[in-house]
Amino acid sequence: MRIKQEHGLSLHLEWSINEKVAFEVALGASFSGRRAAAIMKQVGLNVAADPLMSAAYTGVKGGFIAVVADDPGPHSSQTEQDSRFYAMMAKLPVLDPASPAEARDFVPRAFDLSEQYEIPVILRPTTRVCHARQDLELRPFSPEVRPPDFEKDPSRWAATPKFRLLLHRALNQKIEKIAREPDLYPRLANPISHTGPSGKGPLPACIVASGVALAHAEEILNDLGIQNQVPLYRVPMPFPLPTGFREELLAHYAKVLVLEESYPVIELQLQNKERVFGRANDTVPKAGELLPELVEKILRKFLGLPPAQLFEPPGIPGRRPTLCAGCPHRAAFFAIKKAFPKAVYPGDIGCYTLGLNLGAVDTVLCMGAAIGLATGFYHTYNTGAENQPPIAATIGDSTFFHAGIPALLNAVVQGARFVLVILDNSTTAMTGQQPTPAGGTTLDGRKVPQVSIGAIAKACGARFVETGDPYELKEFTALLKQAGEHAKEPQGGVAVVIAKRPCLMDRKHPQSWTRKQITINEKCKGCDFCVKHFECPALQSQGDKLPVLVDHSLCSGCGVCVQVCPNQAIEIVSEKEV
Amino acid sequence: MQQIIISGVGGQGVLYVTRLLAEAALAQGRHILLSETHGMAQRGGNVISHLKVGGKSGPTASQDLPVSHQAAFEFTSPLIRPGRANILLALHPDGIAAHSYYLRPDGRAYCNASDEGKCNFIDATGIASELKSPVSANLVLLGFALGSGELFCLPEEVERLLNSTGGKRMEINLAAFHAGLQRAAEKLSR
Predict the structure, then answer these.
(1) What are the strands, taking DSSP E only, across A163-292?
(2) Tell me, what's the pLDDT at A201?
C-alpha cells in the first residue's frame, strides 16, 4: 500500500474476504490482460483450491501469480502442507525462493513465464523467507500501464466439459514446454565441474536443494570448508522438474541427497529410492522444519563426516502465548464458561484460539469450522444420545466474514440448536489489524458500505441475535444464558450473541474504556482463581496462599478482573483518563 | 562479522532492537540477514530474532575473512545454528536458560534480570520503570550491551539512529538507552 502511494501506481489493491475471493478478483484482472497477484498462506490456498484448479485449465491473459507461503514447523498454522504439491496437482509451474532477494528476482520471471504460456504461476516462499529481512536493491517499477481489454472467448473463459478436455491437453503441452525453459534449469550453487573426471565413472555424491534448505546447505558447506568439493544444485522450479535433470543427476552421481521443504516434491520426481536420499528412505525427517542444525546433521551423515559438537536446547517448556492483558476475548470466554460450564466449545482460528488457555475452546480445525462442527455436534447428540450437552461455539468477526456465513446459514436451515458467540473486536487482530467489512473503510482508506454482523446473522435466519459488551461481565453472562434458553426452546434454534468490544491493540479505535487503577486488597487468600481461570498476564501468582500481584506495566486497566475474583479481593483504586 | 540472538517475550520490543542493530550495520556498509518471530508467539510467547551481520566492506574489513569469502556476504541462511552466536541479548531472564545454547563457548550474553548478581545482568526493567517507561527496558539493555564494546557497532551509531526516529517516544528511548550505557560504564569497566 505504501509502495502504491509512493510510486503513484495505478492498480487496485484489496484485503479480500477470503482467499478464494482474492484469487478470483485477481484472476478477473488477468483475464482482462493486466498483471495480477493473489497473496495468501498455504491454508488459504486450500480455500482457493477451486479457482486454482480451474484456472490452470482456462489459463490466464495478463501475468498471474499466486504467492503462497508455506509454514514448515509449523509456526503459526494448522498444517505443514507443501503447496508445491498443489502446483503438481494443478499442473502449474512453481518457483521456490531461498531468500527475500531471490523472491524479488523470481517475481518478474514468474510474470513473464505466466504471460508467455498464459498460465498461472505459483511463487512459494516459506516462513523463513517471508520472515527474513536482508539488504537488497529494489528494482524499478515498470511504467507501463496496460488498458484492460477482456476479449470474449467462451471456449476458454466459459469452457464446458467438452472444451475442458481440449484445455487439459493444451495445459499438458504448456507444462512440458515450461520444463524446457533453460534459465529455470537447476544450476550449481558452488563452482564445481559437475561432470566426473572422464573415464572414472560417476562422482560419489551431490546435493539437490531448493528454498531455505538450500540457503542453510550453502552456508554449512562453506563453514565445513567443502563448498568446492560437494556439488550443490539450486532448483529454482521444483515443478515441473526440468527435462533431463533427473537423467543428468543419475548419470553423474552415485548418490543424490535432496533437501527441500516440506514434502518430497523434487525427490518424488527423481524416482529412484536406491540412489536418491530424502524423505522416502528416512534420510530427511518426514515432519518438522529443516532447521540449519538439522541440515548440518543430515549433510554430515550423508557425506560421511563426523557429527558436529552438540549444542542442545534445554528441555524447558517455552512460554505459551496468551491473550493480551485487557483483551475483550478473555472476558467473553470467562462469561461463556460461567454461563455454560459443561458445554462443548467448538472454537475457531484467530487470536481467540487462545481461549484454549481458559478451557473454553475444544476444537480448532480451520477457518469457519466452529459453526460447522457445532452443527455436527448438535445433530449427532440429538440423534444418538438421550442428553444433549449445551454447545457454545466461538468465532471472530473476520473469520465469520471469511468462512462463517455459509456455515451459519446451513446450521439454521438444518435445524441445529446451539449458541454462537461472534467475538467482534472490529478488526483482524491476528494478522496485523486489517479492516473488516463492518468498519466501512478499505485497507487503503476508501469509504465503502458498512456491513452489519447482526443483520447478516438475521438474514441467515437466526431468530435470536443480540449484542453485548463482554467487559460488562454480569450482563454479558445473563445475555449468554438467555441465548442458551433460546437454543432449548421448542421454537428456538441457533442463538447468536455478538461480543462487541474493539481490540486494545488497534490504534485506529479511540480508547473505549476508562483506565482503572487496580489493587489487591487484604481479602486475597492466594487461591489463584483469577490466575488459573482468567489468565490475565497482568495478574501474577506469588505462590501458594500468597496474594496475587498486579503487574502495572502490563495491566490495561480494563477492570474486568474485579468482577472475576470470588473474594472481592481485587478492587479499583481510582479511575483516570490516560 | 557477527551473529546475534535477541530474545524476549512478545511485546518487549525484540523486533525493534533487532531492526535498530540491522540499521546500524547497514549504515556501516555491511550486509545483513535476519529472521524474526511473528504471529501467535507475539501474544506473550517466546520471541526470538536471529541477526547476521557481515564483515565490513572495503579493504580494511577483508583481513578477518578467508580469501574465498571476500567477494560475497558470508551468510546465506537466515537462522543461526546452536553454538554459533557471538552475542545473546535476553530481554527476559528466561532467555538465558532458553536460548544460551545458541552461544559459542566464547560468546557473550547480556540479560535483563532483577537480580544483577552476574556481571552481564542488568535490571533493565527496573531502570526503565524509574524513567516511568517500563516498556523501554529493551533500549536500556541495548545501551548496556553496546557499552560493553563487544558488539559490531558503537553506541554513538545507534544513538544517531534513535535521534533520527523523531516522534513521541524518541526522548524516552534516548533516556533509556543512556541509562543502559551509564550502567555499563559502572558495571563493565574495570
Answers:
(1) 187-188, 203-209, 232-234, 253-259, 276-277
(2) 63
Which chain A residue has its CA at the smallest distance from B83's CA? A311
- Asked whether the domain spanning A184-303 has the same topology as the one spanning A2-178, the reply is yes
- Residues of chain A contacting B26 with CB distance shorter than 8 Å: 135
Chain B residues with CB-CB distance to A219 below 8 A: 74-77
- Which residues does chain B have within 8 Å of residue A318's beta carbon, measured at their own beta carbons? 45-46, 98
Chain B neighbors of A324, CB-CB under 8 A: 11, 43-44
Contact of B76 with chain A, judged by CB distance below 8 Å, is answered with yes
For residue B30, the chain A residue with the least C-alpha distance is A135
Task: Give me the residue spans of the domains in chain A.
Answer: 2-178, 184-303, 328-500, 515-576
Q: What is the homologous superfamily of the domain A2-178 according to CATH?
A: Thiamin diphosphate (ThDP)-binding fold, Pyr/PP domains (3.40.50.970)
User: Tell me, what's the pLDDT at B189?
Assistant: 66
Using a CB-CB distance cutoff of 8 angstroms, which residues of chain A are in contact with residue B69?
A: 222
CATH value of B2-188 in 3.30.70.60, 3.40.920.10, 3.40.190.10, 3.20.180.20: 3.40.920.10
Which of A42, A261, A311 is the best residue to mutate to test the B interface, defined by the most B CB atoms within 10 Å of its own CB?
A: A311
Topology of the domain covering A184-303:
Rossmann fold (3.40.50)
Span A419-439, average pLDDT:
92
CATH code of the region A328-500: 3.40.50.970
**Using only C-alpha atoms, what is the Rg of chain A?**
28
* pLDDT tens string A197-229: 555 667 899 999 999 999 999 999 999 999 999
CATH level 2 (architecture), domain A515-576: 2-Layer Sandwich (3.30)
Sign of CA dihedral A513, A514, A515, A519: negative
Q: Say yes or no for a CB contact (<8 Å) between B32 and A133.
A: yes
The values of phi and psi at residue A363, to 5°, are -135, 140
Per-residue pLDDT tens for B126-147? 999 999 998 899 999 999 999 9
Whether the CB of B41 is below 8 Å from some CB of chain A: the reply is: yes
Cβ-Cβ contacts under 8 Å for A182 (sequence gap 6 or more): none
Tell me if chain A has a CB within 8 Å of the CB of B45. yes
Residues in chain A: 578
Query: What nine digits make up the cell of A315?
Result: 528441555
B67 touches chain A (CB under 8 A): no
Sheet holding B32-35, edge to edge: A132-134, B32-35, B46-53, B2-9, B85-90, B103-112, B121-122
Q: What is the pLDDT of residue B105?
A: 95
Nearest CA in chain A to B85: A311
Distance CA A493, CA A505 (A): 35
Does residue A125 have a pLDDT over 70?
A: yes
Q: Does B10 touch chain A (CB under 8 A)?
A: yes
Query: pTM here?
Result: 0.94
